[in-house]
Amino acid sequence: SWTTGNVIEEQVTAIREQVGDKRAICGLSGGVDSAVAAALVQKAIGSQLTCVYVDHGLMRKGETEQVEKDFVAATGVQLKVVDAEERFLKALAGVSDPEEKRKIIGREFIRVFEQAQAEIIADEGPAVEFLVQGTLYPDVVESGGGTGTANIKSHHNVGGLPDDLEFQLIEPLRKLFKDEVRMVGQELGLPEEIVQRQPFPGPGLGIRIVGEVTKDRLDLLREADAIAREELTAAGLDRDIWQCPVVLLADVRSVGVQGDGRTYGHPIVLRPVSSEDAMTADWSRLPYDVLAKISTRITNEVSDVNRVVLDVTSKPPGTIEWE
Ligand code: XMP
Fold first, then answer.
1. What does this protein do (predicted)?
2. Least enclosed by CB within 10 Å: which of 57, 169, 252, 298?
3. How far is the CA of 19 from the centre of ligand 1 (A)?
4. Of all atoms in ligand 1, which is nearest to the CA of residue 203?
């Protein structure tokens, strides 16, 4: 019968057999799937696994620290963190178009990740032949069920490496649904903040700033987002909502009256939605007192924000994210 204990035991045995005395690498995104996959593989092969975390500077408040400190403390995993904030901000400078932003973030991400990968491969030790991925059952079904190897083109001149690296994939979550992955993560002792984390897009806060992405705007949005998350958690609403993007309308200005006088600041949008699979969604009917608390705190505590608005659009026609 299905228990998290059985799943873990089965996978640990299978992974040990698959990897032998070789090495594996795994990219951590801060999300549940890659974290649980990494923790499972770590349990199986310990220091033969190295994880890579690219800090693109577009994460929410506290999330990078959770990976760097809490996840490492809980698993003992060997982690290589690449601080690439400056590089991403530079690449995003002057760009407002959502698709353009996504392309840039995706491209930079691959470059930084591959560079880190090449450095790990160049380290002393057995050959790195495996790549861990947090593929879930729904992803397998959606993509037609293929598996096996990943071809990773290396664009770097790291001495002695072939241009075209081929990895075998380790996908320990291939048979699991999201709620099962969360249970396995819990059983493995991962921090609650990671196991229960709501979906967060790969391009991060970069696609929650309508307008150009700058460090100041990211810091501002991080504060507003942290307040919204804090109040939703305090109200016990985390399980009722699918996710709640918090969006900064950086290209819009609104007039307000704050403290001693007139302000000319920016609106923040709350986008709480309920959904089963993110394909369709409805806007969440959050209690007015919770919305009021979030609004009061954001306008009081986040400078340059003088207005909080609620998105009451279902999907379709609106997507969950604003960009
Ligand atoms: P939309 O905005 O398309 O979002 O209704 C559906 C779900 O997907 C997430 N999302 C992304 N996730 N990379 C990701 O990993 C992306 O580029 C991306 N765009 C949207 C979104 O947060 C929601 O859960």
1. Catalyzes the synthesis of GMP from XMP.
2. 252
3. 33
4. 17
Structural domains of the chain ordered from first start: 4-195 (3.40.50.620), 208-310 (3.30.300.10)
- Annotated ligand binding at 29? The verdict is yes
Residue 268 φ then ψ, to 5°:
-110, 135
**pTM for this structure?**
0.91
CA distance 88 to 200: 18
Query: Which residue of 321, 322, 323 sits with most ligand 1 atoms within 8 Å of its CB, as the best mutation to test the pocket?
Result: 321
How many C-beta atoms surround the C-beta of residue 1 within 10 A?
3
Total count of residues recorded for the chain: 323
Residues near ligand 1 (Cβ within 6 A): 102, 199, 201-203, 243, 278, 315, 319-321
Per-residue pLDDT of the chain (323 residues; tens, 9 = 90+): 789 999 999 999 999 999 999 999 999 999 999 999 999 999 999 999 999 999 999 999 999 999 999 999 999 999 999 999 999 999 999 999 999 999 999 999 999 999 999 999 999 999 999 999 999 998 888 777 666 666 554 444 344 445 566 899 999 999 999 999 999 999 999 999 999 999 999 999 999 999 999 999 999 999 999 999 999 999 999 989 999 999 999 999 999 999 889 999 999 999 999 999 899 999 999 999 999 999 999 999 999 999 999 999 999 999 999 99
